[in-house]
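User: Hey, my collaborator sent me this sequence without any context and asked if I could get a structure. I don't really work with proteins. Can you help?
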Amino acid sequence: MSSDLLAPLDLTFWNIETAEHPMHLGALGVFEAEGPGAAQHAFELLATRAAGVAGLRMRIAGVLVPVGGAARVPAADFDPLDHVWMAGPVDDFHAAAGALMERPLDRARPPWEAHILPAADGASFAVLFKFHHALADGLRALTLAAGVMDPVDLPAARTPKDAPAPRRGLRLPFPGMREITLGDLDPRRYPDHVRTLAAGATQAVSIGASVARATWGVRTSPALTSKASGTRRTAGVVLDLDDVHRIRKTVGGTVNDVLIAVVAGAVRRWLDERGDGSEGVEPRALVPVSRRRPRTAHPQGNRLSGYLVRLPVAEHDPVERLRAVRASMDRHKDAGPTRGAGAVALLADHVPPLGLRLGGGLVGQNARLLFDLLVTSVPLPSLGLKLGGCPLTEVFPLAPLAQGQALAVAVSTYRGRVHYGLVADARAVPDLDVLARAVVDELDELLAACVS
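Assistant: No problem. I've predicted the 3D structure and written it out in structure-token form, which is a compact way to encode the shape of the chain:
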């Protein structure tokens, strides 16, 4: 029976979960129905195809070595019908998704679910995918979900004639631990190992100091903090990617800079409309950065760092907000994803599994001391996806909500449009629709300022 040990960050996500603080992410995909039985057909396809996706059969189990560790292991009693569910007709996909995102995943089974939501008018249906963060990050979740979509014809990958042959090595006796090569056993490399350990310790000290500095002079809003209630509300916003490119070409920066600036402006509008006020507010947004190697065929677990960006919510000029975001992102990119307070996730690499297990609750309770909201980008393929011949028309990524926080924002681009997925604590943010409208209004104002 094969397995792979949870990486430190994955183990952290597994350990910080509580009943009021589920650590799962998701995606709500909307499909155009090709007939009256489209939703039922989608249910049958998902249940059938899930059995053939190896990653969907993996559950999380404890291991003897290392102490306190855990691994992904195949579930011997895997039944797709424990994970794929058919709902009754719904009038509002996001209202249904919010209620479903509240429900914790069964930790004794492979931690994922897929819910088919037929629209009451029969013109469309949605599929809500939920994955525990210990099973998959955004990229891995995308890979797993793509495994149950209709096959897509892609150009076959070619291996260069001069590509090096794979190295042979000696395997450790514990499943999931990395392969040891003969070069690792060469005594002449011991100084290299010592230097690696020293560099890791230096990095940990540097990140720790940055985390301490990030708590100084914090100017956030009480609207972004919340006692964990376990309730969830979601909303989605669709924007034209061409509008984003027009803004980018005028002001400079990247598409992601524009999308983050839109979040800053939308939060400003939302705070002002609800009466909390945006004067002096500069919340810290954690912007995750993937550390995966390019062209990883089967990415496992979380390989994340991040940038901690002060959102210029108090700035009244939308163009200046964008310039401030761009300058902040440029500084973080110059420093790299292994430095700064946003790289705090890398500290998990320096903590033994037992420490991660025992300290998980403390980490979860103090996330809000480091950042005020999550703003993450999830990559999607540009090619059109289908399920049972029904085209995917919209897809809203749904980020996990950190304990003590009221709001998380995820964004994806798909076939010429930008999709914002908003997740909030339902009790703390009953007016999430106001924030959703503010995203649209902010892009409109920013675009008008750039083309005038």
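In plain terms: Residues 154-212, 294-299, 340-348 have pLDDT under 50 and may be disordered. You can pass these tokens on to your collaborator as they are.
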